[in-house]
């Protein structure tokens, strides 16, 4: 869980995204209990309504679910749902703009792939 929040973005979205990141990174696994609303309120020192708003978004997206009287838990298919959603976002926000820059530069798909491969391995791209 993040230790600090960014004042430039809605806090409830940051709460939601923090839990999503923990799920994607394997810190929260399917059927794990997420921190309670009161724990989140105390951790981030924020209004309980703000926490609830972020949590409700995750419930609406079926990323987490409520066990009455027990708490909130990660849905069994949450990691797959999140990976699929983030993959679509990655394509739109990163890959498509990359291609839009590479084509006018005259870079071939193979050249771009080779650059990606080198970067993935941590090698210098000339």
TrEMBL record:
<dbReference type="InterPro" id="IPR036388">
    <property type="entry name" value="WH-like_DNA-bd_sf"/>
</dbReference>
<feature type="domain" description="HTH gntR-type">
    <location>
        <begin position="9"/>
        <end position="77"/>
    </location>
</feature>
<dbReference type="Pfam" id="PF00392">
    <property type="entry name" value="GntR"/>
</dbReference>
<dbReference type="InterPro" id="IPR036390">
    <property type="entry name" value="WH_DNA-bd_sf"/>
</dbReference>
<dbReference type="GO" id="GO:0003700">
    <property type="term" value="F:DNA-binding transcription factor activity"/>
</dbReference>
<dbReference type="GO" id="GO:0003677">
    <property type="term" value="F:DNA binding"/>
</dbReference>
<protein>
    <submittedName>
        <fullName>GntR family transcriptional regulator</fullName>
    </submittedName>
</protein>
<keyword id="KW-0238">DNA-binding</keyword>
<keyword id="KW-0804">Transcription</keyword>
<keyword id="KW-0805">Transcription regulation</keyword>
<dbReference type="InterPro" id="IPR000524">
    <property type="entry name" value="Tscrpt_reg_HTH_GntR"/>
</dbReference>
């Amino acid at each position: 869980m993040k230790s600090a929040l960014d004042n430039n973005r809605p806090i409830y979205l940051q709460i939601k995204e923090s839990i999503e990141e923990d799920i994607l990174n394997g810190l929260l696994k399917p059927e794990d209990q997420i921190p309670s609303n009161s724990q989140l309120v105390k951790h981030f020192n924020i209004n309980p309504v703000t926490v609830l708003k972020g949590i409700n978004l995750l419930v609406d997206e079926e990323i987490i679910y409520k066990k009455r009287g027990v708490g909130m838990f990660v849905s069994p298919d949450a990691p797959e749902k999140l990976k699929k959603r983030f993959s679509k976002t990655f394509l739109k926000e990163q890959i498509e703009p990359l291609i839009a820059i590479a084509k006018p530069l005259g870079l071939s798909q193979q050249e771009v792939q080779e650059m990606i491969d080198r970067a993935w391995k941590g090698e210098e791209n000339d």
